[in-house]
Amino acid sequence: MTELSDTGMATRRRVLGDAHVARAEAQTTAFDAPFQALITDAAWGHVWSRDTITPRERSMMTIALLAALGNDGELALHLRAIPNTGTSRDDVIEALLHVAIYAGVPRANHAIRMAKQIFAEADAPTARGPA
């Protein structure tokens, strides 16, 4: 691994969580290993690791872009990651209001429904019962 890869992996784990990254790594094959290395270096090492804007701001921007483009799988991943970035649910709705104006109401409407479902799941009591 390179220093960039190490930095990218540390940032990826901080934002998405160790469990998600461990699952992604366990599912990596020889076929998609080059892609995983690319996103670790480029997205997480080059972009997400920059200190020019905060992780909260970067998260809001990412959520807006993913919603605007209709990238539901990645959007759900980043909505679940907001506790790790300092992004609030109020921040998410602000980002999605911008999506409505600049990318279209249907995209924002769909993203808002997704966010509501993800937040409801996060708020639901666990099935384990009292600790």
Helix and strand string, N-terminal first?
Answer: HHHHHHHH
CATH class of the largest domain: Mainly Alpha
Approximately how much beta-strand content do the residues carry? under 5%
Q: How many domains make up the coordinates?
A: 2
Question: Could you list the spans in which at least 5 consecutive residues all have pLDDT below 50?
Answer: none
Helix segment tally: 8
For the largest beta-sheet, the strand count, sense and barrel status come to: none
Q: Indicate the CATH topology of the largest domain.
A: AhpD-like
Task: Give the structural class.
Answer: mainly alpha
Which oligomerization state do the chains in this entry correspond to?
single chain
Number of strands: 0
DSSP helix fraction: over 70%
- Which overall shape is indicated by the principal axes computed on the Cα atoms? globular
Tell me the distance between the termini: 40 Å
CATH architecture label name of the largest domain: Up-down Bundle
Q: Please tell me the overall pLDDT.
A: 95
Q: Find the CATH superfamily of the largest domain.
A: AhpD-like
Radius of gyration: 16 Å
